[in-house]
Amino acid sequence: MGSMERPGIVSFFLKRGYQLDGASLEFFTQNQDKINGVLEKIAASNQKTITIQLITNLLTPTHTATTEEIIITKTPSAQPAKKSVDNIGSIFRNRYEIIARTIADKSDMANLISINKITPKSTDFSIIGMVKEKDIAEKSLLLEDQSGEVAAYADDGISLEDIVLDEIIGLVCEQTDFVKIKKIIWPDVQLTREIKTTSTDLLCAFISDAQAATEKFYDWLKSQAGSNMYFFIFGDGTGSERITSAQPNSKIFLTKKDSEPAWVKIGSINILLATDTTLANYKNIWRDQTDIEILTKLLKKRHINPVFGFNKKFVDDNLFILDEPPDILVCSSAAEPDTANYKGTTIISASIFINQPIFFIINLRTRETIKIDLT
Questions:
Q1: Which range has the worst mean pLDDT, 106-110, 147-151, 233-237, 346-350?
Q2: Residue 64: what pLDDT?
Q3: 340 pLDDT higher than 50
Q4: Are strands 328-333 and 269-274 parallel, antiparallel or unpaired?
Q5: What residues have CB less than 8 Å from 248, skipping those under 6 apart?
Q6: Which of 48-52, 149-153, 258-262 has the largest mean confidence?
Q7: What is the reported pLDDT for 79?
Q8: DSSP string, 99-167
Q9: Local structure of 334: helix, strand or coil
Q10: Considering the chain, what percentage of its residues have pLDDT values greater than 90?
Q11: 345: which strand partners?
Q12: pLDDT band at residue 63 using 50, 70 and 90 as cut-offs
């Protein structure tokens, strides 16, 4: 087949009973060697209008099954521990030891000492502790480590708004008549992180309350036949059977309110799944913040539920501690669906389908996030 101009390509397809949309015409103009291949594959179907999505589906190699299992690495125990003084003390010590190690490695933490080593002669120093009290009016914190506690007062320009009780932070201090906070150091996420991927295209879709999915969703599912797909569904699981029926080679993972947070792994990629139960508590603290902004703040704290009083069921605190930050952090939400990337972690706020039929897909090979809008 010789080279053709655009009118010739349109005529070529019309003679064979096919119409092209603008995007597919552009594709064939630039890739005329693909024309015969597409015609051979489309002949067995009833499609008469060729779209760029159809071309992509026809030219993408199909797979009969997903190539990686979903491995559950951490999930709540069926029998949560009972609250006791010993248990609470053990939780706080463990939290402090894990997160303090990360803070201590920060270059800003010069002259690091324990709280009981602060003397009247101490001038410039750093400390790490758990926030026991916060007073916005006085701009003060009561910080505690395993050796003691100290009151510290924020210098001009230092905001305490992002600090919550029970979190572990570092303070760069100066002492005159009192301990003055010169800088707040969060454990945060390191900049030099490996961006983990898979060797093949594996698509992860994150959906909240699948029972509210519309026919548009199932039409979209049919268009993805042959893709390696994983569905992470927040809710009671209603509707998951129909997804399996439409995508028999897919894998499904359910996240219920009594089984969160859950850590799973696909290949080397760690995924942390939480529900709006966790997020709601912090939306009451940071009322002017979006879900993505709140999740980013919690990621910086390396703990997605630091306020101890919010852990009503006394779930294992290690599930919330981000000793190793997740590659993907997803939380169901009644708010606007959104996504962002923070230092190598993909963050997703998964909207409830009954509110908005919008969801996100991540290709684990490229780590690209795709928004699917079915409104």
A1: 233-237
A2: 44
A3: yes
A4: parallel
A5: none
A6: 149-153
A7: 60
A8: HHHHHHTSTT-TTB--GGG--TT--EEEEEEEEEEEETTTTEEEEEETTEEEEEEEPTT---TT--TT-
A9: coil
A10: 54
A11: 342
A12: very low
97 backbone φψ class: left, alpha, beta (φ>0; ψ -120 to 50): alpha
Alpha helices in 235-275 (DSSP H): 240-246
Dihedrals φ, ψ of 346, to 5°?
-80, 125
Structure tokens at 315: 């779930």
How much is the pLDDT for 312?
65
Q: Is the pLDDT of residue 44 over 70?
A: no
Domain positions in the chain are 6-59, 70-79+191-373, 106-185
Question: How far, in Å, are 10, 153, 244, 289, 352 from residue 297 at the CA level?
Answer: 53, 22, 36, 10, 22
Q: What is the Cα–Cα distance from 142 to 140, expressed in whole angstroms? A: 7
Position 8 pLDDT exceeds 60: yes
43: phi then psi, degrees, rounded to nearest 5: -60, -30
CA angle 41, 45, 48 (to 5 degrees): 100
Report the candidate in 362, 206, 331 with the shortest Cα–Cα distance to residue 257.
331
Question: What class does CATH assign to 70-79+191-373?
Answer: alpha beta
Q: Where are the alpha helices (DSSP H) in 52-148?
A: 52-59, 85-104
Q: What is the pLDDT of residues 141-161, one digit of tens each?
A: 999 999 999 999 999 999 999
Kindly state the tokens that stand for 227. Answer: 């893709």
Q: Which helix (H) or strand (E) holds 14?
A: helix 6-15
Query: What is the CA 290 to chain-centroid distance, rounded?
Result: 14
| 344 or 214, higher pLDDT | 344
d(CA 4, CA 7): 8
Neighbours of 339 (CB within 10 A): 17
pLDDT of residue 159: 97
Rounded to an integer, what distance in angstroms lies between the CA atom of residue 267 and that of residue 220? Answer: 26
Q: How far is CA 66 from CA 248, 267, 284, in A?
A: 11, 12, 40
Q: How far apart are CA 305 and CA 166, in angstroms?
A: 10
Among the residues of 146-253, which ranges form H helices? 215-223, 240-246
Superfamily grouping for domain 106-185: Nucleic acid-binding proteins (2.40.50.140)
Equal CATH topology for 70-79+191-373 and 106-185: no
Tell me which of 220 and 103 has the higher pLDDT. 103
Angle between helices 35-42 and 52-59 (to 10 degrees): 90
